[in-house]
Amino acid sequence: QGGSASWWNHLHNQHHAKPNCFRKDPDLNMHPLLFSLGKTLSIELGKGKKKFMPYNYQHKYFFLLAPLAIIPFFQLSVFYFAIKRKRWLVRMCFNSKFGWDLRYDKCFCVYLPRYLESHWFIWVTQMNHIPMDIDYDKNEDWVSTQVHATCNVKQSLFNDWFTGHLNFQIEHHLFPTMPRHNYWK
């Protein structure tokens, strides 16, 4: 996605510490700007009459809008991380590589492939998390938190290949350093 390894590790470690916990999992930062996530948070939005988007149609616009939104979301996240952590080299590389230049050749060679890759990223990550409980932190033990926030997708040769073995999301969360090709074991 154009970020540094330290940026990715920081976000991913936060996600693994408290998956699907609102205000603790950085993957939920787009709620409620674009999507209404989870029963508790959706009811809270409804009672507060906070309507940013037509959430009753989010199942129709998710496919197009989520991958499109993740590109600037990641770019802003990398920029914020570089400034907050004083990672000046990351910031310089980010600015030179993924600036907001909208020339035709850059759009075609950089942003179109990133948009297509974002479709894969959204589908692989969200099919294992969105169906599960999304709520505030319930202070459960670590194992319970991982199991309640993730689910596996049926194993097949195609699913193993397409997801890079991340169809075993429960195992990925319980054993994050295990090589992915061993999750099925």
Automatic annotation (TrEMBL):
Which GO biological process annotations does it have? fatty acid biosynthetic process
Which residue range or ranges hold the Fatty acid desaturase domain? Answer: 2-183
Q: What GO CC annotations are associated with the protein?
A: membrane
Q: Which UniProt keywords apply?
A: Fatty acid biosynthesis, Fatty acid metabolism, Lipid biosynthesis, Lipid metabolism, Membrane, Transmembrane, Transmembrane helix
> Which GO terms label this protein's molecular function in UniProt?
oxidoreductase activity, acting on paired donors, with oxidation of a pair of donors resulting in the reduction of molecular oxygen to two molecules of water
Among InterPro entries, the record links this protein to: FA_desaturase_dom, Fatty_acid_desaturase
Transmembrane feature ranges: 61-83
Is the Ligase keyword given for this protein? no
Q: What name appears for this protein in its UniProt entry? A: FADS1 desaturase
Organism from which the protein derives: Ceuthmochares aereus
